[in-house]
## 1
Amino acid sequence: MDIWTFGWSVALIGMGGTLLVLWLLSLLILVLKMVFPYKAENSASDKG
Amino acid sequence: MEAAIVSGLQGLLLGLSHLGWGHVVMIAIGSLLLYLGIAKGFEPLLLLPIGFGAILVNIPLAGLMEKGGVLRFFYDTGVLTEIFPILIFIGIGAMTDFQPLFENPKIMLLGAAGQFGIFLTLLLALALGFDKLEAVAIGIIGACDGPTAIYVTSKYAPHLLGAVSVAAYSYMSLVPLIQPPIMRLLTTEKERKIVMGTVKQPVSKTVKILFPVVVTVAASLVAPLGTPLIGMVMLGNLMKECGAVERLKKASENEIANIVTLLLGLCIGATMEAAKFLRVETLMVLVLGLIAIGLDTAVGILFGKLMCLLTGGRINPLIGAAGISAFPMSARVVQVEGQKYNKKSYLLMHAMSANAGGQIGSIIAAAIMLSALAGMGIV
């Protein structure tokens, strides 16, 4: 593989992959927040 | 008798007689790192041991990096095996609070844009004649994350470890000088004045505990070679958030992190032997590292401008500059810069979200790059 095929492939996979994974993680956070919403009574146990 | 005394005295002068200009220059560089760490407060925890290690390894005939030397032992057992950076990651995880990210998850995307400098610099390094793995190691300076840079470089281009580490840590501490001119260049005054609303959203403890586990599994499935990086950070964070292993958490963020930081710093300094460090390629690595962080900042801001456009002007593009891993320094730079143009603008919490995204983003970017290299059969 020549250096430019290598370079552009890594760059495209890297930039696209990082963006995609972080977008998925942001969705996962939203899902977790929906499934386990914060409740006022949690605050006492949070401190513990 | 006289001959023995003369021979003994000659032995005392051996070090001096072997001292070359390269040693002197490197001792001066080591001293400069000490000065920056002690007097200027630039990353002293790292620059002090790195600077001292650089001085030690450039004492002629001391043999600290020869076979059987003490620094060689630490280097072989801690750096070449990747144990030191991995242990540092546990400490980082134990010290990191992802709360700002939970409050505003979509800002996490800025943490991805803030890593693009890694890949653009990789292309530049290839254009300048570095081989593939050297280009990978140089590009990773753009992660703005010392342990990640050390992990990748020690694995694939250990001969560049000194230059890459010095660049990574030096530029991280210079973020307040590097970023503002780029922020001003790429944004209009109107954009810099945008006031963002508050995003105070409490998050349940269950979410905080599940997050590190979910991230580890999800990210590691996509990029398995990055599992040591992601897994250790998230292990540290799980110990912090669960509250069940206070002793382990404290050990991770204090004793383990401190001991490893000291030894890692010494080992990095030990790679700065005059014969290996004083080369044109070192200067090129330092310049490319600076470009990498500049590109990270620029792409982060441009992505911030895109988000500003898509949200009808509700996002201040300046927070895009905080999509790098230098936490919380970069977020503070954004806050200061925003306040210069609008005293009513409080960007800190939003920038912290982007900054926390940058911390995860830098590890994910490295993990994806390593997995892509493995997929291509390069490593």
## 2
Amino acid sequence: MAWYTGTMAEKERVSGEDVRRVAELANVELTAEEETRMRRDLNAILDYVAQLGELDTAEVAPMAQVSEALAGQGEGLTEESSVLRADEPRPCLDRGVVMAAAPETDGTYFKVPKVIER
Amino acid sequence: MNTVAGVPGIEAIRSALTSRETTAAELAEASLRRIAEADETIHAFLQVDRATALAQAAKIDAMVAQGEKLPALAGVPFGIKDVLTVEGFAATAGSKILEGYRPPYTATAVKKLADAGAVFLGKLNCDEFAMGSSNENSAYGPVRNPHDVARVPGGSSGGSAAAVAAGMATATLGTDTGGSIRQPASFCGVVGVLPTYGRVSRYGLIAFASSLDRIGPFTANVRDAATVLGVIAGHDVMDATSSPRPVPDYTEGIDRGVAGMKLGVPAEYFGEGLDPEVRGAIEQGIEKLRAAGAEIKKISLPRTKYAIPTYYVIATAEASANLARFDGVRYGLRAPKPDTLADMYRRTRDLGFGAEVKRRILLGTYVLSHGYYDAYYKKAQQVRRLLTDDFLAAFREVDAIVTPTAPTPAFKLGEKSDDPVAMYLADIYTVTASLAGICGVSVPCGVSRAGLPIGMQILGRHLDEATIFRVGQAVERQAAE
């Protein structure tokens, strides 16, 4: 994996504080060593990603998924408008089977440690 | 014809079963024996289930004995990448965070294979959450390339490619988000298919990047790949992105050759960084297609160089969202003795995720975060449309596009850990098709002087798998000459 190409920006895009903030948002723990490495990696990839700025996209609609690009071209992946199924109840997984895969349950609910920190 | 010596293809299995030259039990035993002999070194399988394989084989043999009509894949030994679920069988995604997890449901693609009579051998090794190009990111140890065990099999579906290349299975399933089927197929000298986005249901696939993830087959020849795709393709009520378009018989017309077809050769796929031996093999393959009657057209996909940065923004953004579900609550690992909920989330994810997965989660979280969304994520989605438009324009001129699958043959384990630029180049010819949602296949197209396989990538229009199989069949035939 590799995000080390491209020229380094004169100023770092991502600071140590940014890395700590993002790690907190993502609920990922980092050692000091990992933090240094992630900071280096994120800066390298974002410097590389910066080349996307060469393209003028002011008039381009974002594309989240391929079927959007094909819509209206007569070659859509789906027949027409909606692919949503009828809103009718169907059988689902048995609760007991699902609970059996969890680390801790009371048989009805998943159990977790206390939520509120004092 | 088969690219792997000693492994029966699907048609050979069918005729040997109906003529009673062999039994499904014997075929399953042969695969299990091959795994026992070779897999201590190759490490393609994370889990082998002898009892299930023999029970499924016995059902097929009973059908033969009763003179019943055999389903399409009767007796075909297969394995699946361990990002796909099979009810009751451990599913790890190559990660410690799912250690011990036994999913309560079966992936649609796997169910379709089983319903077609295929015999399930076990689950195949892969990069953690399908993130990697060398299979060195598996939490359960790397896979080795059967052509040279000092080399990687490619990734992330390295186990799926290696199992076919080593003759352990006739067919396997892998997944491809940025090249994870095509690149290992190229490195291992087998056929690997990237179906059109939406062609195969993703139900039961442990998600990496949902707008890019696809499930597809590995086989030892193009016809078998067409047969397996025909079985696993189709609409599924459990995946709203699966296409309701009818699934054609992909083997029909596969032998018609390439005479009169227009094949595009994009200049951007033959530039700096392409290994001279790979270039030579692909150019020779293209010349043979010309000699077989194809019209070869030079084309341009002008924005190709923006594909890798676009891919890393979109794939990591989607991964950061998808991997939020691994939190120690509903399945898999939970860190011992957590104080609070937040402590449990953080320590569980620290224990469970490897370095590459953490890096991608952080990058994805960053590009989606307040203040950066427009600059990175929205921008990448806009460029994604431009990259797709490049292909749509090209396909108005040509029927299919031919390129190298990967810039080099298989590299050595550890070789790229200190040369990340080269590691990223491993995906440079595959990611653009991933972003555009089009179909592709990697077909063996020669070997290097060191005996390492080289794959040709054939890209086709959305839902036009029939054309890429037809070209692939011609490439396979001429490579054997």
